[in-house]
Specification:
3 domains, 29% helix, Rossmann fold, five-stranded mixed β-sheet, 332 residues, binds iron/sulfur cluster, flat, 11 helices, 14 strands, alpha/beta, five-stranded parallel β-sheet, single chain
Length: 332
Amino acid sequence: MNAQSIEDAIIELKGIGARRIMLQIPDGLKPEVFNIFGQFSTEFDVVISGEPFYGACDLGNFSMEKNIDAVVQFGHSVMPNVVYPVPVIFLEWKLSRKIDFSQVSLEQIDSKGYRKIGLLCSIQYCDQMDSFVEMMKKKGYTIFIGNVDRRMSRPGQVLGCNFSAAHSVSSNVDCFIVVSTGVFHSIGVQLSTDRETFLLDLNSMTLRSMKSEAETFLRKRYARIEKALDARKFCVAMNTKVGQRRDRLALLIQKKLTELGKESVMVTTDNVVPSDFVNMRCDAVIFTGCPRVSLDDQEKFPMPVLTPPEFLRLFGFKQDDRYIMDEIVSVS
Ligand code: SF4
């Protein structure tokens, strides 16, 4: 469940009778850890997770701790398609400052005649989208905010592993604007919808087209994954994080590798360590957990690390004309 404040989270925790809880606090909020701990510890026995965590898909090391009744995760929003092993309260982390969208230069979309705009955002900006929509409507644009599937809980939300909000409106829009930090989400929307996608850079308050960055991404990607064509030994990696497990998909991939006459082993991972795969002397990895491991972290691995759609296309099991981003729709 989602909570809007620490007070709300405490009420929810009392409601479920929690006594011992674990807090997951992202790096950006770590300077507040003593303050946050103090607020919860008046009511509960509290332990802070010292492990990194990457999203609502990831409960970190809670299972290593004894008798945890509930987890409170800061900075993310519930994933309805995940069955969590204990109650989890998601405390969305909102920007304290109001973004002044009136400063955004819209020249890039005006010069191309785009009037119908799909708007997407990562969770920390969702609450500020109303003012952006209002401003855009006043300037005569039509704004589309897509519905999300069961991976997310806010309309228009985008994750690195799910672009459902973009798919739901892509046939109606001329282009997308993505409000997020970093380029990964915007490149993903550009590639998975084929609509020109602009990242709203909140530092410069300008729109940055992702077209050429997506092309560069693809060039590098193909150069890397094509090396897997000659691979003999594959590791098929299943991630044990609660919202990243795709065991059925991993088994399907292993079956296909057998059909191809390739050797493969199934490997479980949590926080992925490239040297583990090096030690296993595999020629390529197919990673069924978070797509960002294959796409963002490839440079850390000496061998190609493919997403499932990349594997299926490279080896001829899928005939798509264009690159397919790996999206997590359900976990199993
Ligand atoms: S699977 Fe990866 S991209 Fe998706 S929510 Fe988790 S960390 Fe983010």
